[in-house]
Amino acid sequence: MSEADVTVARRDVTSPPARRLIEALNAELSATYPEPGATHFRLDPEEVADGRGAFLIAWRGDTPVGCGAVRRVDEGTGEIKRMYVVPAERGRGVARALLDALEDQARALGLSRIVLETGVRQTAAIRLYERAGFRHIPPFGDYVHSSTTSVCMAKAL
Question: What is the CATH code for 3-111?
Fold first, then answer.
């Protein structure tokens, strides 16, 4: 099985598959960053409403295997949020398929730049983003206060 076997589709962020994936993401982040005060930044449903963003789920057959979102930050910039792939599917093209679909959604929103934040201990994610053309930038927005654990990146579309 490969990336070609994965479909990515827009779904409601409050749907049962989305909630299960986000709960798994939050559990993994809590285990990776157990320090007091570690933050798992939220994503509100209105941030991914039509015209403002999108929440996507990657499927292998009928099984949800990953998720991600893009939300408008300002007129030309979007932010990638809540990227997650279930452990059994890592290294099989799911994250790249999601990222490509999120970039397509950002372009459809008329955005010319996307930014993201990931954690310093998420080295596989950092490598994925670097291979996809993202470059490191200074912490922005809510992440300014988590600069010891956050890695911020950006890409022109």
Answer: 3.40.630.30
